[in-house]
Each structure stands twice: as structure tokens, then as C-alpha cells.
Write a structure and sequence with these properties.
The chain is low in regular secondary structure and about 60 residues long.
Length: about 60
């Protein structure tokens, strides 16, 4: 690879568009409708929670 000196042409750099409050916002399309939530089915049985406290053995 030949050394790049100050006289060699430099590839043009594409201008970077500034991003900020003044930048145009991307168009937002219509929001998809949320499907209605039907009746809640039977809940799964919850395992009983053992009480945890100072009387717990091994503490």
C-alpha cells in the first residue's frame, strides 16, 4: 500500500445531517388498533405462600 501523503486526494466525506429539535420528524403511520381483551379465564391455582418471619426454623 503506497503511503498517503498530504498531496494525495482525500475521499469526500458525506455531510452528516444534524439531529435535534429542528430535525424533521419521521412520519408516523396510523396506529394499529389494539384488540379488545376478552373475559379473563379461570385463574391458575396459586401455591400457598409459607409465612416468613422470626419464628421460621433455621433463622
Amino acid at each position: 500500500v503506497p503511503p498517503v501523503g498530504p498531496d494525495d486526494p482525500v475521499a469526500p466525506i458525506a455531510p452528516v445531517e444534524p439531529v435535534g429539535p429542528d430535525a424533521p420528524a419521521l412520519p408516523v403511520g396510523p396506529i394499529a388498533p389494539v384488540p379488545p381483551v376478552g373475559p379473563v379465564g379461570p385463574l391458575a391455582p396459586v401455591a400457598p405462600v409459607e409465612p416468613v418471619g422470626p419464628e421460621e426454623p433455621g433463622s
